[in-house]
Amino acid sequence: MGIRGLPIEAKSFTPEVLRKAMESTIAQLNEYRKQFKVTEPSLLNFCVTDGDTVVVTRYISSRTDEAASLWFSSGTEFSEYAEGGHYKMTKSDKRENIIMIASEPLTFERADWMEIRTNHMAIITPKMNFLQVPIIDEFYVPPSDPAALKRTTEFAQEKVNPWLLTAADWWGKALVYSGPIFIGMEGMSSLLVAQKLGQEGKKLFESGESYQFGMLIVAAVAYVFSAWWIVDSYPTAASSPLSSTLLGVALTAFVFLTVIGFAMRRTNIIESSSLALFIAYNVWLCGFDQNSFTDPASAYAPLLPNILPHFQTLTNFVVNTLPKPVLIALLYRLTILHLASRILPTIGADSWESEEGVDDGWDDRPTSTLTKLLLTYRQSIFVTVYSHLLLLDHSSQIWWRWMNIFFTLVIWSIELLVSSEDDAVADKWKMD
C-alpha cells in the first residue's frame, strides 16, 4: 500500500508533509470501508519513514473500541544492566538520543514505557523530537469526553482465538478462587516437615550427649533468629491496627501451644522452633510493600563468568523477572510440597507393615494413593502453584499469609490435643 499525497519526485519530506499524507491515507481507507459497506472496525497501526522522519499511527475506525496497543520509550542510552540480555532505558539529561516504538514493552522496566493514545499519530522528527498528534475525524474522541475512558479492548482481543481467551479467563479464576486449597496444602506440608524434623532430631538426641548439645544449639538459634526476623519485619508487617492484632494473637497462640505441647509431652524443641521459623517467614512476607510485588529487582550479582555461562543467563532471567516475594514464596512452597510428598509414605509405616498379611511395600498403605497423585502430577502442580502466586494481588498475598499462619496453628493444636497418649508413633519420638 502506498502513502497517499506524497510528491513522487521528492527524496525526503518534512514531518508535516508525512503527517498529512498519513491522515489522507487513513481517510481514503475509511472511504473504502463505506464504499464496500464494511461494518467491522479496522485496526490501522502504520509506520513509515523517509530515513529522517518517522510517523507511526495507533488507530481504529471506532469510537467505542481501543486500537491495538502501541508503546514508546525514550532516553539518552539503552544499555544492558544485567548479563543475559536484560536492558533498560536511562535518562542522564533532557536530550532524547534514542526513541523506541513497539507494540508491547520490550523490557521488564515498565516505567520506561509510555502508551501512545488511541487514534493518535506519533512523529519522530530529524532533531529527535517526539510528538503525539491526534487524528481528528469521525472516530476521534477528545480526552475531555467521558467516552474516551470507556473504550473497550474486546475487539483487539478478538484477533486471538476466543477459545484460548475463554480458557485463560476460566483458568485464572479457578486459580484465584483456589487460594484456600493452596494455603491448606502449604500449611499442612509445613507442619508435616516440622514434625519430620522433630522426629529426626529425636533420633539424634538418642545418639549421644554431643548430638543433644548440638540440637539444643540449633533450636536456640532458630528461636532467636525467628524472634529477630519478626521484630525486623514488624514495622511493615504490622502497618495497621488489624495486622498488629493478628500478629499478637499469632505469637500468643504459638507460645501457648508450645508450652501446652511441652507440658503434655507431645512436641519437642525441634518441631516448635521449625514452626517459629515458619511464622516468621510468613510475617516477613506480609511486610512487603506494593513496590516489592510490582517492580522486579533491578540488578543481582551475576554468576562467575567462568562457570557455565548458560546457567548465568538462566539465573539472571529468573531473578530479574520474578518479584522477590513471589520467587521466595514459590521456592518455599515447591520445596515444602515436595518434602511432604516424600514424607507421606512413611507415616505409620512401622505399624502398617507390622499388620499380618501386609508386605514391606507401601502400595497398600492409606497414604499411597495421595502420594502417587502428588508425584505423578508434580510438574502440573508446580506450574499451578507458580501461576497462583503471580495472580494474587498485594492485598491477597498479605491476608492469605495471615490465614496460612492461623490455619497451621489450628492444625497443630488439633494434633497436640487429639493425639492419643498411647500412640506408638508419638511415644517413640515426641515424648521424652
What does this protein structure show overall?
Mean pLDDT is about 75; it is low at about 290-310, about 350-360 and about 425-430. The chain has helices at about 15-35, 155, 160-175, 180-205, 210-235, 240-265, 270-285, 290-295, 310-320, 325-345, 350-355, 370-375, 380-390, 395-420, 425-430, and strands at about 45-50, 55-60, 70-75, 75-80, 85-90, 100, 115, 120-125, 130-135. A hairpin with a 4-residue loop joins strand 1 (about 45-50) and strand 2. A 4-stranded antiparallel sheet has the order 1-2-8-9, covered by helices on one side. A 3-stranded antiparallel sheet has the order 6-3-7, with no helix packed on it. With about 425 residues, it is of the alpha+beta class. It has 15 helices and 9 strands. The termini are far apart.
Task: Give a brief rundown of this model.
54% of the residues lie in helices and 9% in strands. It has helices at 15-35, 154-157, 162-177, 179-205, 209-237, 241-263, 269-286, 290-294, 309-321, 324-343, 349-353, 368-376, 378-391, 394-418, 424-429; strands spanning 47-49, 54-58, 71-75, 77-82, 86-90, 98-102, 114-115, 120-124, 130-134. The N and C termini lie far apart (86 Å).
Q: How would you describe this structure in keywords?
A:
single chain; 432 residues; alpha+beta; three-stranded antiparallel sheet; 9 strands
Runs in which pLDDT lies below 50 for 5 or more consecutive residues are 290-310, 349-360, 424-429
Estimate the mean pLDDT confidence: 76
Q: Estimate what percentage of residues fall within beta strands.
A: 5-15%
Q: SSE order in H/E notation?
A: HEEEEEEEEEHHHHHHHHHHHHHH
* Number of discrete helical segments: 15
Compute the gyration radius: what is it?
A: 31 Å
| Structural class by SSE content | alpha+beta
